[in-house]
Amino acid sequence: MKKELKYGFFSFFLIVTFVLYGGTFLQTASASSDTFLSSLDPLDSGGFYASEWDSSTPFADSSGKSTSNSIGFGKEYIGTSYAKYQLENKNFKTFQGKITLDSKWLKGDYGKTTVAFYSDDRLLYEKALTSTTPSANLKVSLPKSIEYFYVIVRQEAGGKGPHGVIIQEGKFLNSGSYLNTPETVYDSALTVKADPKSSYYSDTEESPTGFKDINGNLITKGISFLRPYGTGGGEYATFDIKDAGYTQFETKLSLDADYIKGDYGRTIVGIYADDYLLYEKELTPKTSVQTVKTNVPKGTNQLTLVTKQLGGSKGVHGVIFIDPVFKTVGTPITVPYTISPMTVTGNSSSYFQEGGIYNTDESSIPQYSNRSLATTGMIFNQGYSGQMYASYNMSDTDVNFFKAKLSVDSRYINGDYGTSVIKIYANDQIIYSNTLTKKTGVIDLNLKLPSHLNTFKIVTDQKAGTKGDLRVTLGNPVFQKMPASANLAAKQISVVNNYNKADTVTVKSLSKGDKVKVYNTKGQLLATSSAAAKDSVTVSINQLGTGKGTVLVSRITGSKLESDKTSAAYGAEVKPAVSSAVVAKNVTVVNNRGKDDVIYCKRVK
Questions:
Q1: What are phi and psi of 320, to 5 degrees?
Q2: How would you write 503-536 as a 3-class SS string?
Q3: What is the 3-state secondary structure (H, E, C) of 94-150?
Q4: Is the dihedral of CA 453, 455, 456, 461 positive or negative?
Q5: In angstroms, rounded to a whole number, what is the distance separating the alpha carbons of residues 293 and 250?
Q6: Three-class HEC string of 530-550
Q7: Cα gap 259→473, rounded to integer Å
Q8: Residue ranges of the chain with pLDDT lower than 70?
Q9: Is 431 exposed, middle or buried (0-12, 13-18, 19+ CB in 10 A)?
Q10: CB of 124 within 8 A of CB of 118?
C-alpha cells in the first residue's frame, strides 16, 4: 500500500499544480523544458519505488550519501523490475543521469544486477553493476521519434537477497543531438513474437530471472533455448515476417554461463530465411559473445532461429540470443530461390533420416568426419552391407543446382566400417559418383542439374566392415535456382576429326570471356577452353577416335552456372589420298657436266 499511497499523493500534487498554473503552461513546459525522470508518473511498472524505499528507508547511493530526484528498483523483487514512460511528442534529445546500487544492500552476496534503458524496442544503454563497480554515469542520445521510454532492471538474488538499484538525477534534455537512426523500422523479436509451436523456446518476458551470457552477465532482453531434461536434439523459434519489409536481423549470441562447466556436449546454431541458410556457427565454452548481423532476403516469409545439440554427460548447453531485433534499412538483398529436400515430395528406404530445420531428434543431427556439426542434413545409416536411397519428385520445382557438404560420420570411423559408394542421379542420369572411406574429408558438392528436372535420387551402396557400415552424411542440402549460362545451339559448334593430328572443336557467336567445355557421351570432360578473346574459341583434343561420333559442348558465362550440354556430331577420320606411282620408263635422268642435272617425267597427270 505504501507505493499506491505515494503515487496517489504525487498525482494529487500534479492535479493541484495543473489547476493553479494552467494546463497550457505545463504542456508547453513538458515539450520544451528539461524534465527529471522522477517527476514523471510511469504508465506501468513493477518493483518500482518513487523517492524512497519506504517511509523509514530513504535512498542512498553506493557511497552512502542520500540522493535527490531519484527512483528505485528491486530490493524485494526477484527477477525483473521496470518502469514505462510515455515520451511521444516531447522532443527530448538526450537522457542523462547516474545509476547506483544502494549501499545498504551492497556488502555481501546480493547476487547479480543489470540495468538497461530502452527507447521503444531499441537498447540505448546496458550495464552490469557489482560490488566493485556499483555505479556509473550515463548520457545517451534519444531517437527523434520515440513513443515509450523503459527502465529495465534484471536481477538474480544472492544469499542475502537482491540489490537496490537507484536512478539518480535522471533527466531528459532538449539539448544535444538526436540519435542517428538510419532504420525506418526497428522491432524486437520479442515484439514480433515467435510462433507458439516453437520448440524449447522462452524469452525474458516469460522468465522471472532471465538468462546470462557466457561471462555471467544478466541480459535484459533475449531468447533462450534450453531442453529441460538435458538430452540432445533440436530447438527452434520461427518468426512470421511475411510482408513486414525487414531487411536486416541483428542479435548477439552466446552460451548461458550456467551450462558450460563440465560436459554439456556440442552445440551448433543456425539462422534461416525460409530454407536459405543465413548464418551457422558451432559454439563452445571458449566462444566469446558473438555479434551477428545478417541481411534478410527480399520476399522472406519466415525467419527461424535453430539450435542442434549433441548431449553430454551433464546435459546440453543453454543458447542465448541477446537483444534480437528486426530492422528495415537500405535495400533488401536478393538470394537464389532455395528449397530443402525435406520439403519436396519423395520416398526413401528404411534407416534413411532427414534432419530438417524443425526436426528435434538428436539422431538426425549430421556430424562430419572432422567432428563439426550441421543444422540440417541427410543421413544414410544402413547398419550393414546394402543399398539405401532417397528419391525426390522435382517436376513441380524450377531448380537447376544442388549443393551440400558430403562426408562420412565421424562417430563411425574408428575401426573397420568398410566403404560406401554414393551415386547421385538427375533424370536417371548419374551426375556424381564417389567411393567414401574413413579417410575421406568433407567434400563441397556443387552439382549442376539439367533443365526440366523431373527426378533426383541419391543412392548409397555400403560395404560394411566388422564394426558395421560407414554412415554417409549430406549436411545442409538444398536445391536452388541459379542464373545459368545460355545453352549453345548445334549450329554454333563445328567439330573436325583430323587424321594423325589433334582434333578441334570450334564454337562461334560467343560473348567475350565465355569459356567452353567439351565432354564425351559418357560425361567425361575432354577439354576446357580459355576465355574467349573475341566471339569464338577453338579447343584442341588429342584424338576423338578414328570413327564418327558425338561430343557434348557447354558454355560458362562469367559467374553463371554452366549451361546444359549440346550434342555435336563429327565424321570419321579421312585418310589423305595417295598419288599413283611413277613408271620407270617414263623417267629420264640427265647427269650434266658443269651445269644443273635434269629429271624428265612423261605422262604425269
A1: -120, 125
A2: EEEEECCCCCCCEEEEECCCCCEEEECCCCCCCC
A3: EEEEEEEECHHHCCCCCCEEEEEEEECCEEEEEEEECCCCCEEEEEEECCCCCCEEE
A4: negative
A5: 4
A6: CCCCCCCEEEEECCCCCCCEE
A7: 29
A8: 1-32, 77-78, 208-209, 578, 603-605
A9: middle
A10: yes
